Amino acid sequence: MRVGRLWGIDLHFNLLFLFLLGLYFVAGVLEKGLIIFALVLFHELSHTLAARLLGVRVIDVEVLPFGGVARMGGEMSIEPSKEIAVALAGPASNLFLVALAMGLRHYGIWSEELSPFFLQINLMLAFFNLLPALPLDGGRILRALLSVHVGLSQATIIAARIGQVVAVAVACLGIIGVLNRFVGLDVVIIALFVLYSATKEKNLAPYLFIRHLAQKKEELFKAGVLPVEQLAALEDITLKEVVRLFVPQKFHLILLLDKQLESLGQINEVQVVDALFNHGMDYPLGAILKTK
Known about the structure:
Order of helices and strands: EEHHEEHHHHHHHEHEEHH
Radius of gyration: 23 Å
Strand order of the largest sheet: 1-2-3-4
Oligomer: single chain
Number of strands: 7
Shape: elongated
Mean pLDDT: 82
Structural class: alpha/beta
Helix content: 55-70%
Low-confidence stretches: none
Strand content: 5-15%
């Protein structure tokens, strides 16, 4: 649900988040729900501010029960270091609030009723979001670290699968906790939503990969110089088998070989990407040389 714009960015509240606020209202602890609302919003705005400072375009932001999701420009896939910095900004903001609250306690600015809850939610938001599982911040950090080794698409799938496993585990533990009255139903609801979001991230991996390929020329022109990654490939393999090995912040050169492993020549990743968009994923790699 769109609620307005902030710094030129559309701000959305997920309906599940509003449903949880309603649960807090029914339970008679709306003030705690509002604290959670404020801290989640602060967490997400910290991501947005970090992205702005790093020159990353933010399209819109959706506030979720465990943090939020910001749709950002392609700079994130070109420069994994920026994705790491933006992801860390959210948990760091919650840890900052913990330190601030502990400092204020020494000056008598403290509520015995709500301040412990304030600390608890901040710590939960910080450490839960650092789990290495998409769509959590830790999952985005993991994806950025993996992408330079296995490519953006495969890194997304790995981090999303971990997210699915974590969500199922938390949901099962949450159900046990509800039955034994250790936790509330909100833990199970949040876990199920993380499962849904992780599955969505996994399904979007191919589209993210295509967007990354479309920006490979921009990546080279922006950096000016990139380290080279050398690949050797048989002439009859398809483009999709090669491009899945492309990783951010490296420029790829492909040595083409025939079936006798004799060298036929060399092509670069720009030629491969151009052929991909002109002829499709099943176009044979060797055909690029014949059209030069």
